[in-house]
Design goal:
Helices cover about 75% and strands about 0% of the residues of chain A. The first copy, chain A, is mainly α. In chain A, helix 6 packs parallel to helix 9.
């Protein structure tokens, strides 16, 4: 799967808080470029070693241009974590289809996430480093995903496909499964890892458990 | 649950690699003290802000004493990650009983881990920071846990309690469930989080899945 296309609306979302919103299409493209390059720079070097001057050099923009969008390296990192959260969300959504039942939805969402993580391995390092650099964004990232999973579990229960008593515990359990399967097979796995099969096995665990 | 008692054998294990093994009981106690104080220091300040001089001050030992055990702050951090891996392992093991069936074993292991993490919240921050400070230990920590879970799944299958086709994917899924439930309820939860109930819900997901 290709990276989900990122619209200018999404770029605007990514900026929540401390990014200065660009007014022109050209400005939005520059902001997008800065976020994409920042993902590579932070992914390779980590937050502390990454530098604004290296990011602007890689993006081919002047140092002054950077500061029309972000006040600090911290502000860029925060915007990047929000942007990645948003991209994880839309990569899962874009794989879903109204015809899918609740279980198929979970399988497709996991498979899309695994493909996304394989194509953007840096996402783990960046989200994980947020625990130290920007704890509020780290927590918001996982709480947001858990809330979306919990809503899917509830609608699966309303449709009569899932147990009626599912809630926050099961949502966090499911998120943890997906995150660690992604770490093992999408980030640490080799190119031959069969992500479709991995998602199907996780889905079977979800559907029927492991007991005989 | 109290912290598992840490024997001098375990201290010796924690040192794998680059700790100098103490020859006397007094030396082993000093090493244990340094590891305990390091957990607090690294947990509070993170690796980069933590300092050897602050650790020795907190432990009430001379700076020179530190260097009879560790060459560097990095070596101490590595020893601490190994020690924590070991403590997670023994906290789960000490909760298990030969009479338990395979499912009860998983519930008890998770419950013991949740209690351990509530009493040692710093463990998440330290293991997570190892991803950046000492990636090999980070990976070894999770691969070791996944291998132990996979062995338990296989013996549950041999006993006829678990499905025959369980393997690495299910082991990583189960580990991820446990880690994220621990983050939500043991580390971020309040003192009133009912960890026994949380472990029971996760165990039901494991036993029968979420589908109707």
């Amino acid at each position: 799967m290709d990276a989900p296309k990122v619209s200018s609306t999404k770029v605007a979302n990514a900026e929540a808080g401390d990014t200065k919103t660009p007014r022109t299409e050209r400005g939005r493209r520059t902001l997008r470029k800065l976020l994409d390059v920042a993902a590579i720079e932070f992914g390779e070097k980590g937050f502390h070693e990454a530098s604004v001057s290296s990011i602007t050099r890689r993006a081919g923009v002047a140092l002054g241009t950077f500061y029309t969008y972000f006040d600090t390296k911290d502000a860029l990192f925060r915007a990047l974590v929000n942007d990645m959260s948003d991209n994880v969300k839309s990569s899962a959504r874009s794989a879903l289809d109204d015809d899918m039942n609740a279980l198929e939805t979970e399988r497709a969402a996991l498979h899309a996430f695994l493909e996304f993580a394989r194509d953007h391995k840096e996402i783990y390092r960046i989200i994980d480093e947020a625990e130290f650099v920007d704890p509020a964004s780290y927590r918001a990232h996982y709480e947001g995903i858990a809330q979306r999973i919990e809503m899917r579990l509830k609608s699966g229960a309303e449709a009569g496909e899932f147990r009626q008593d599912l809630g926050e515990v099961e949502a966090w359990a499911l998120m943890g499964m997906n995150v660690f399967i992604g770490l093992r097979y999408a980030v640490w796995g080799d190119a031959k890892s069969d992500l479709e099969d991995v998602a199907a096995r996780a889905n079977r665990l979800l559907s029927e458990g492991i007991a005989t």
